[in-house]
Amino acid sequence: MGIRGARRPQTRRKDAFTMLEVVIAMAILGFGLLAVALMQLQAMNGGRAGRHSTQAAVIARDQMETFQRVPFGSATLAQTVGWSPPITVNAQPDGGAGGVEQAYAVSWRVTDVDANWVKDVDVRVTWDEPSFQGRTLTLSSTRYNDPW
């Protein structure tokens, strides 16, 4: 027989979370979400830098094609002393929202290898990234005088 009025020992319920477990789980989740957000920002910056590099390559190619189209004896292909003074080319953001996304400085150098037959043409495009100042892309080509 048991004693009347004696209390049963209380047992803890094992099917519920304690407040400490919830706080720890929320902290781990918070750090994980913060890491994902930081990776997303890095990916956006990398995408922007890649887009600027691609745009610089397009600008250099367009300028080089201009040099390839003009006649060999044209003043445009006259030998330069060092690099030409830079001209500014502004790139529009995708969708043409009207703003300038990036400004590029384009300069070129023409060197006579053989004044009547061969010229070396270099096109240099420079621009600044927020995290890397003075990025440069140089495209080089050799122009031959084809009399035919």
Question: In terms of topology, how is this protein built?
Answer:
Layout: H1 19-69, E1 87-91, E2 102-114, E3 118-127, E4 135-144
Antiparallel strand pairs: 1-2, 2-3, 3-4
Summarize the structure.
The protein is built from one helix and four strands; from the N terminus they run αββββ. With 148 residues, the chain is of the alpha+beta class. The radius of gyration is 33 Å and the shape is rod-shaped.
Provide a descriptive summary of the structure in words.
- This protein has 148 residues and is an alpha+beta fold.
- The chain has one domain.
- The protein is built from 1 helix and 4 strands; from the N terminus they run αββββ.
- A 4-stranded antiparallel β-sheet has the order 1-2-3-4, with helices on one face.
List key phrases describing it.
alpha+beta; 148 residues; rod-shaped; 1 helix; single chain; 4-stranded antiparallel β-sheet
